[in-house]
Amino acid sequence: MTRKSLNIRNALSGLFCLGLASCGNPPAYQTDMFDAAQAIHTLEALSADEMQGRKVGTEANAKACAMIIERFEEIGLQPVAGQFEHPFTYGTFSEPATGADAAPAKTGVNLLGRIEGTSEREISMIITAHYDHVGIIDGEIYNGADDNASGVVGLLAAAEYFAKTPPKHDIIFLAFDAEEDRLGGSIAFVADPVEPLDTVALNINFDMLSRGDNGTLWASGTYHWPELKPVMSDLATRAPVTIKMGFDEGDGREDWTLLSDHAAFFRAGIPHVYFGVEDHPDYHKPTDDFARVDQNWFLRSIETVIMAAAEMDARLDEIYAMRQAATET
I need a labelling partner for 156 at 20 to 30 A (CA). Which of 40, 103, 163, 237 fits? Predict the structure, then answer.
């Protein structure tokens, strides 16, 4: 998550297997929503030293990209517009709203997969998480286990759930690149979407799901879309972790509205809910490692965000009507 600033496959398979072998016993927490052991294995593999912090534009970032595509294929996601990989160009934006004042100078790759809904109505939901991190700084690897290997694992687990339990509406699973470089991937996507965004009812963004050091997972965005508050309040009574709403009321650094990939959707008038934990001592430090994750809390956190996504899918017609009403006014 960008909170500090607004301003080949064979080789990969060997690396992934190494990650699986080193994971030890499977976590105690079990759920029928997704494969808990697979989730932990993926978290460890994405945040391993071999991934060198997954910085946009690097060979290690490309390895993470290939690993996510492999999971997309295993889960059974459909490519969007004929492919999973969607390259983009971007610059160092002085205004994150559009990036129009900076000449495109860099490249990244967004990853998109789809699960079709059972309803004939053509509205959809986009679930997002960024897979890049900050790479190597002063010779130290910033592995980004919480930020944001954890969100990618949450996205993959949600895809796994909906592949087994078909949603009512189409769901796009979008792994963004270049979030850590001024939200590059999400700004580029919304500015030039692969498919029109006028039928998108909601963005659910996962960014930092694993370090609930204070036991709380935050849902941000309901201040802007108060009609979503009853949904989140109901979820809070059933969720496996403590859910609170906040960090979206315009109070300086305590407002997360523009600090992760949901910002691009927010600026486009698309409702969003962002799930994440508060900053912790290892945030954007080389110590944000797999070993510091409480695996059982993380698995409960994933189950919570999947429950939220399922509830949002069930109410997506109402949410889309909310977006349309807001657009009209």
Answer: 237
CB 234 within 8 A of CB 169: no
Query: Would you tell me the crossing angle of helices 150-164 and 59-75 to the nearest 10 degrees?
Result: 20
SS (H, E, C) the chain: CCCCCCCCHHHHHHHHHHHHHCCCCCCCCCCCCCCHHHHHHHHHHHCCHHHHHHECCCHHHHHHHHHHHHHHHHHCCEEECCECEEEEEECCCCCCCCCCCCCCCEEEEEEEEEECCCCCCCCEEEEEEECCECEEECCEEECCHHHHHHHHHHHHHHHHHHHHCCCCCEEEEEEECCCCCCCHHHHHHHHCCCCCCCCEEEEEEECCCCCCCCCEEEEECCCCCHHHHHHHHHHHCCCCCEEEECCCCCCHHHCCCCCCCHHHHHHCCCCEEEEECCCCCCCCCCCCCHHHCCHHHHHHHHHHHHHHHHHHHHCHHHHHHHHHHHHHC
**What mean pLDDT do residues 229-240 have?**
97
Give the integer Cα–Cα distance in Å for 87 and 90: 10
pLDDT number for residue 20: 36
**pLDDT, tens digit, for every residue of 56-93?**
999 999 999 999 999 999 999 999 999 999 999 998 55
Complete domains list, the chain, with CATH = 9-328 (3.40.630.10)
